[in-house]
Amino acid sequence: MQSKDLLQLADQFGSPLYVYDAEKIKSQYERLTKAFSKVEKLRINYAMKALSNVAILQLLRDLGSCLDAVSIQEVQLGLHAGYSPDQIFFTPNGVSLEEIEEVHSLGVQINIDNLSILEQFGTKHPTVPVCIRINPHVMAGGNENISVGHIDSKFGISVHQLPHLVRIVENTKMNIVGIHMHTGSDILDIEVFLYAAEILFDAARNFKNLEFLDFGSGFKVPYKKDDIETDIEELGKKLSKRFNAFCEEYGKELTLIFEPGKFLVSEAGFFLAKVNVVKQTTSTVFAGIDSGFNHLIRPMFYGSQHYIENISNPKGKERFYSVVGYICETDTFASNRRIQEIAEGDILCFRNAGAYCYSMSSNYNSRYKPAEVLWINGEGHLIRAHETFEDLLKNQIPLPASVAKQ
Asked: Which UniProt key words apply to this protein (predicted)?
């Protein structure tokens, strides 16, 4: 997308605004499938927690993607977007047996990540196809909050508990059809990923009726110019060869599954915000925008970096600014960042705003959530309207006058 397109959309739909480029999502999907083209059975389950707008789900469905859901609500959104139950994979963490059974009743493939629920579910439903999430105890990810495969993680069944796991399966005679792992996000060293894959292969040898192996995802995308990223092509070459060899050893052509979220949608996203005020203190020049961590929490939550440019003055001289929001707590998007000279009323563009941005937004300070627009075939299509005051009041129930006066 061009800056002029983004400016036109900000003018048309207002700010703050999320914009997603359909072509970028498509090219990322094709890049991933091409990297693993030598695997006979490949399945991509889009991790919809990254961005769950129904229009985005429909776009990915048309590309051939399936879904990875982590809640019953995401499963229902997937069904609403036109996915069939067998195209949805349920990978929750710490949910109740009741939620898992509700998802199962919808015909969706379930993935269980703790021994307690595994034994309870297996005892009640021994014939139901189940996948097991293994924790390989491999530390991977760009931040502690997004590294989920280490030994202290709440995710998955420890690989050291494999004998206990196997005993539960044997006692309940459960139908285990898949083994799953996920080490974390922002993986750079593909050798670490390949090492974890060997642990998954070892675990898989304990089960004779597998249909697939799920390697999760966590591929890093570039966050700024000349930034490093996961070498998907190299990973595809090495893991495909190893996976095919394991299938031959196993005696069956298994399906290779990935669950990319950020990889597919992060770079496709742009967050546009208007500069309300330029404020200079004794040591800092602040650019205060019409947004805050209620709309984009990632920089405050785990230090993520979003490249910020002034698309209203793209050729302006660069100066140092701290970009801050309007929330009544510290919400700093960037400190002393070089950005083209900023004036009040300019539109700032945050890159890499497609994943875990709108989906983690809130109504903190009773602010409205922004609109979302999909840029497709050279046109902007509104796929979620700006919230209104009525949206804030929805589901709120005032006290009756008789009670309030007591």
From this structure: Amino-acid biosynthesis, Decarboxylase, Lyase, Lysine biosynthesis, Pyridoxal phosphate
